[in-house]
Amino acid sequence: MPNRPQITLSKEELKRASIPTNHVLVKMLHSNEGAKTKGGIVLGFLTDDVFIADGESHAADVAECYGEVYKTPEKLFFDPNDPNSMDWEVEMELEKGDIVWFSYLESKNSCQILCDGVIYKSIPYQDCYVAKRVVPLGASDVTVHICLNGYVLCEPKFLVPISPLDVVSADKVDKTSTIIRYIGNAPKRYLRESYTHIEDLRVGDEVVLDHKTPLYLLERTKAFAQFQGDKLFWVVQRRRIGLILNKKG
User: Fold this and answer.
1) pTM of this prediction?
2) pLDDT at 63
3) % of the chain exceeding 70 in pLDDT
4) pLDDT by residue (tens digit) across 27-66?
5) For the chain: N or C, fewer Cβ within 10 A?
């Protein structure tokens, strides 16, 4: 991949630096450039930045989409009358030390800082999807998952074969419905007053998606998946869920 522009700062300069409105500063924990898969294979990719056909590898596959939260703003800014506002009103839920997953495109295009050999990226908060936080609990630690910005993580479903002779459907993803596996707080308000969402959603609900829902994965390939083993999840905005097909419990 081509080298992206970056600036170099000392530890003291990085500590003093202020982050932009509604951004978080993320310490990158790894680099996928020239990296090997879990099976020891170096992953090749096309140079096209567009999310192209399934089964082909390209730059987005090796974009680093998670890191450790290093710095957060005191609060998030939401004002429907200000162009600098976030697209929705939510509380700041990230804390320093959280591991956060975010947009591939923001990862590739973000401001990049080099400090003591470590890369830091400035990521818009509204492009952060989910975080992991280790919470001390007695003699052991518990890892909690925090879905951000009204996003939910969903398990991809596959089409049901229409007959015993149908050997194709089981390999095709059903893009109309899915199962919620991780969920968090919903936005309080949206910039567009016409936007709305279902409040009573739970883990395990089977839901129908709006036909315009842009479907993309939290991690594009099992080879580099870190969130939950080699399981892959759709990232879906809560407002894109149009109907609860089967209610859990």
Assistant:
1) 0.84
2) 67
3) 80
4) 998 765 555 555 554 454 433 333 334 444 444 455 689 9
5) C
